[in-house]
Write a structure and sequence with these properties.
The chain is an all-alpha fold. The chain is built from 4 helices and no strands. The chain has helices spanning 2-30, 34-40, 55-68, 72-87. It starts with a helix and ends in a 10-residue tail after the last helix.
Length: 97
């Protein structure tokens, strides 16, 4: 009789270990990469820009933004918006948001 109880406990432990491993695998597959998190936000900004900039210019840009209380991202968004506004005549009406 004790042997059957031990076998039963071992089977239960093995099943629990399998369930834990399956759960861990599922959690790993559910984890999104950072860029996927940015892109998958519905209705939010979903474009990302990468630029190589001279370090001295970047430091000056950052310092100016801090003085004005802006983030670099906000300043870049303002620059892009101004550029589009000034050049929207080049676009068809359907292309402009």
């Amino acid at each position: 009789m004790p042997r059957k109880l031990l076998d039963t406990v071992q089977k239960m432990e093995a099943q629990e270990a399998i369930k834990a491993a399956e759960k861990k695998d599922k959690e790993k597959s559910d984890v999104k990469k950072p860029i996927e998190k940015i892109i998958s936000r519905e209705g939010q900004k979903d474009k990302q820009i990468s630029a190589k900039i001279n370090m001295q210019v970047f430091n000056a840009f950052t310092k100016i933004n801090r003085i004005q209380g802006l983030s670099n991202n906000s300043a870049i968004n303002m620059i892009i918006t101004k550029y589009v506004r000034e050049n929207k005549s080049l676009l068809d009406e359907d292309d402009y948001i």
